[in-house]
Amino acid sequence: MGDPLVIGGREIGSRLIMGTGGAANLSVLERALVASGTALTTVAMRRLDAGGGPGVLELLRRLGIEALPNTAGCHTAAEAVLTARLAREALETDLVKLEVIADDRTLLPDPIELLDAAEQLVDDGFTVLPYTNDDPVLAAKLADAGCAAVMPLGSPIGTGLGIRNPHNIEMIVAAASVPVVLDAGIGTASEAAQAMELGCDAVLLATAVTRASDPEAMATAMRLAVESGRLALGAGRIPRRYWAQASSPSR
Amino acid sequence: MTVLVNGIVTEVGPDATLADVLAVHGVPERGVAVAVSGEVVPRASWASTSLREGAVLEVLTAVQGG
Questions:
Q1: For chain A, does the N or the C end have fewer beta carbons within 10 angstroms?
Q2: pLDDT at A52 over 80
Q3: Which PANTHER family does the UniProt entry name for this protein (chain B) (predicted)?
Q4: Which residue among the candidates A15, A88, A97, A141 is catalytic per the annotation?
């Protein structure tokens, strides 16, 4: 495609960024990742003895998919910075999906801690992709801090409630000096297409695919939806009209 | 001396290095990262890092998530 996604100077081969969380097993995950066409996929950092599949890195390596470590589960800037540094050491990447959540019920980002962590990690040479609220002011501050992208939520993680505030997403896109990745809340393909039609540069999702009844089919649907939404945005939709306008000749 | 590795009390020799302790637990060389008392220790420094009694080691790897 002649229209690549570029984040932090690196070209990403797909506008659908996947997560690996929630898949029943690695074989289901593999089929979903392949069907999604993704080139960049999140992983979490956990204790070596915690289980949960040490094979995920090997799987990504085999599929030629770049790993995007996250700081999921961190509640403070200090925890997130340490986790990012551990991820850089373990995965030999400067990419980090920065998550600093306020509480475990909403999993909403803590904006104060998030901005603090973002500034520290940018200073430390990371390519920072922050998971943020759908707040245009905070998104602009994260971009100003040197983040390589901003990743506003459509709705809280894992809810599948779609894009609750499309106008805010449009405002974030309009002001953005860096790529905007719609992250979290997507439930089905039409919502992924909507994100792209709103002007987002990419979509990041996991649960909508990994917990679907047929993850492989949903991954295909998401790939096509992201492509469709991007095409529709570029094609230029018709203006909305109050009254009907005949599309057949009158005589 | 006694150190804590991912919450597991581990008895090691008085001069044990970080590399020695990780070997006891069969930690692989790739795909993991180690923090000692909240500071990341790069892989290249494992063999030259000495530990103190009660040191807290965290050994992390990538798992499915996000």
A1: C
A2: no
A3: SULFUR CARRIER PROTEIN THIS
A4: A97
